[in-house]
Write a structure and sequence with these properties.
485 residues, Four Helix Bundle (Hemerythrin (Met), subunit A), 3 domains, four-stranded antiparallel beta sheet, 14 helices
C-alpha cells in the first residue's frame, strides 16, 4: 500500500508523492515561547514526531523544520504575547524567550520527541521577512501606510482555499488594532509600525517596526525548504487566520505553490464542569502543563494516550483516558520485559513454535495502518495483538529459542520504539531499575538456595514477599524468570 495522507487542502486522502523521490521537506508551525507548554502542545508535536519517525523508518530522507515564534504573535487587543509576559514578570523580552524556549525543548526531550533538524526563530530572520514584504509590495499584493504594511487579500482570489472560508464571511481584522489604515477590513499585517517605547523593533524601509505573526513562517519555510515543499503541519486551530495567510503571501511572493500537503492536528479537549469537552487552552485556565503531566505519568504513557486517537481527531484528556492508556502500555511493556528476561535463559536454537508468521503479520498490519494517513491507533492495535500472542507463547510448555525471542524483541524495538516512541531501548527506571533488578535477582537466588536445601517454607515466604511487591516468579526447567505486574 502506498502512503496516503489526508490533505486538508484537497479535503481527501491522496497518495504521497514527494517533489524529490526519497526526500521529504517538512515544516511545522512551532510554539510561541512565552510560557510553559501544556499537554495540548504535546498532542501536536508528538503526533508530528511520529510522522517524521515513520517517514524515516520508511526510508525517506526527511528535513524537518519547526519554528519558534519569539516576536509578532499579537493578541486580539494588538499586544505582543512576548511583551505582555515580559511586563508581567518584570523581565526583558529575550529573557522570556530564552527561558521558555529552553523549557519547551526540555519538555519535548522528556517526551521522547526528536529535535527538528532546524529550529529557526522569527527574530533571527527579520531580513528575510522584510525581503518578502518588499516583493509583495512590488507585485501589488501589499501596501504600506503610516509605517505599517498590509497584505491585500482581494489581490489573491484563492484566499480562503485551505479553511474553506470566503472573504465576505470572515470577521474583519481580528488581530489588528488600527482598522482605518486598511483598504479592506480583511487585510492582515505584514509589518507593524512600532511606537518609540516598543521594546521589540527593527529598522525597515517603512520605519521602525516589527513583523506580523504570519510572515515569519513564510519567510523561514522558503529560506530552508524552498518556494514549494512537501508537507506543512500545525494545529487545526491555526488554519485561520495563520495558515491561510501563509499560503496567500507565499504564493503571491514566490509565484509558486507553497506546501503540497497540509496536515492539521485535532485539538486536545478537557471536560468542563458539565462534562462537555472543551479545548484545552491557557485563556480558559483548563490546561495541564507537560511538566505537571510528567509528574503523574511516565512519558511513554503520555505518548500512548496521544496515539490512541488519530492525529486529525480531537482527544479528550481525563483521568479515565490516562488510566486506559497506562493499562495498555503496562500490558505492552510486560510482554517486552518478559521477552528480554527470557532472552537471558534462552538457548541458541531456532525453535520458534511457528511464531514467525505472527511477526510478519504484525509488521504488515502496523505498516498498513501507518500508510493509511499515519493511523497510530491502528498501529497500536497491531502491537497489542502481538502482545497477546507473545504472552501465550512465553507461557507455553515449550519455550522459544533465542532466535525467535530476538526477533520479537527487535519487532518491539522497531515498531514500538523507533516509530511510535513508546518502547524504550532500556527498561524504564535507569539506575533505580538496575538496583531493583539486582535485589530481585538476589532474592531469587536466595529462594533457589532455600529450595535446594529443602527449606520450602523459607522459599515460599520469599516468593510470597516478592508477589506482594508486584514481582511474579515463574519456575522453568532452565531457571526462574520474573515479571512485574
Amino acid at each position: 500500500m502506498t502512503l496516503q495522507i489526508f490533505n486538508v487542502l484537497g479535503r481527501e486522502k491522496q497518495p504521497f508523492e514527494p517533489l524529490e523521490p526519497g526526500k521529504v521537506n517538512m515544516y511545522v508551525c512551532g510554539p510561541t515561547v512565552y510560557d510553559y507548554s501544556h499537554v495540548g502542545h504535546a498532542k501536536t508535536y508528538v503526533s508530528f514526531d511520529v510522522v517524521v519517525r515513520y517517514l524515516r523508518f520508511s526510508g525517506y530522507d526527511v528535513l524537518y523544520v519547526q519554528n519558534l515564534t519569539d516576536v509578532g504573535h499579537l493578541l486580539d487587543d494588538g499586544e505582543d504575547r512576548i511583551l505582555k509576559k515580559a511586563r508581567q514578570s518584570a523581565s526583558t523580552p529575550m529573557q522570556v524567550v530564552e527561558t521558555y524556549a529552553r523549557e519547551y525543548f526540555a519538555d519535548m526531550d522528556a517526551l521522547g520527541v526528536l529535535r527538528p533538524d532546524i529550529s529557526p526563530r522569527a527574530s533571527g530572520h527579520i531580513p528575510e521577512q522584510i525581503s518578502m514584504i518588499e516583493a509583495l509590495i512590488e507585485k501589488g499584493k501589499a501596501y504600506a501606510v503610516n509605517g505599517s504594511v498590509y497584505f491585500d487579500v482581494r489581490s489573491y482570489p484563492e484566499y480562503g482555499k485551505l479553511s474553506n472560508r470566503r472573504i465576505e464571511e470572515q470577521q474583519a481584522g481580528s488581530r489588528e488594532l488600527v482598522q482605518d489604515e486598511k483598504r479592506h477590513p480583511d487585510d492582515f499585517a505584514l509589518w507593524k509600525r512600532a511606537e518609540p517605547e516598543h521594546i521589540l523593533q527593527w529598522e525597515s524601509p517603512w520605519g521602525m517596526g516589527f513583523p506580523g505573526w504570519h510572515i515569519e513562517c513564510s519567510a523561514m519555510a522558503r529560506k530552508y525548504l524552498g518556494d514549494t515543499f512537501d508537507i506543512h503541519g500545525g494545529g487545526v486551530d491555526n488554519i485561520f487566520p495563520h495558515n491561510e495567510c501563509e499560503i496567500a503571501q507565499s504564493e503571491c511572493a514566490n509565484e509558486a505553490d507553497f506546501a503540497r500537503y497540509w496536515m492539521l492536528v485535532g485539538s486536545l479537549m478537557v471536560p468542563d464542569a458539565d462534562g462537555i469537552p472543551v479545548k484545552m487552552s491557557k485563556s480558559l485556565g483548563n490546561f495541564v502543563t507537560i511538566k505537571d503531566a510528567l509528574q503523574r505519568q511516565q512519558p511513554q504513557v503520555i505518548r500512548t494516550l496521544i496515539l490512541t486517537s488519530h492525529y486529525r481527531s480531537p482527544l479528550t484528556f481525563s483521568d479515565d483516558s490516562f488510566d486506559s492508556a497506562k493499562n495498555g502500555w503496562d500490558r505492552l511493556m510486560g510482554a517486552v520485559r518478559l521477552t528480554r528476561e527470557s532472552l537471558r535463559f534462552a538457548e541458541g536454537n531456532d525453535q520458534g513454535n511457528g511464531f514467525e508468521p505472527v511477526l510478519a503479520q504484525t509488521r504488515q498490519k502496523f505498516t498498513e495502518a501507518m500508510d493509511d494517513d499515519f493511523n497510530a491507533p491502528g498501529a497500536l492495535a497491531a502491537l497489542y495483538e502481538l502482545t497477546r500472542e507473545v504472552n501465550t507463547l512465553l507461557n507455553a510448555d515449550v519455550k522459544p529459542g533465542k532466535a525467535i525471542l530476538e526477533a520479537i524483541d527487535q519487532t518491539y524495538r522497531e515498531l514500538g520504539g523507533q516509530v511510535l516512541g513508546i518502547v524504550p531501548d532500556a527498561l524504564p527506571g535507569g539506575a533505580n531499575a538496575e538496583r531493583e533488578e539486582k535485589l530481585i535477582r538476589l532474592l531469587i537466588a536466595m529462594r533457589a538456595e532455600a529450595r535446594k536445601n529443602k527449606e520450602f517454607a523459607q522459599a515460599d515466604r520469599l516468593r510470597d514477599e516478592l508477589a506482594s511487591a508486584g514481582v511474579l516468579l515463574e519456575d522453568r526447567p532452565d531457571g526462574t524468570i520474573w515479571r512485574i505486574e
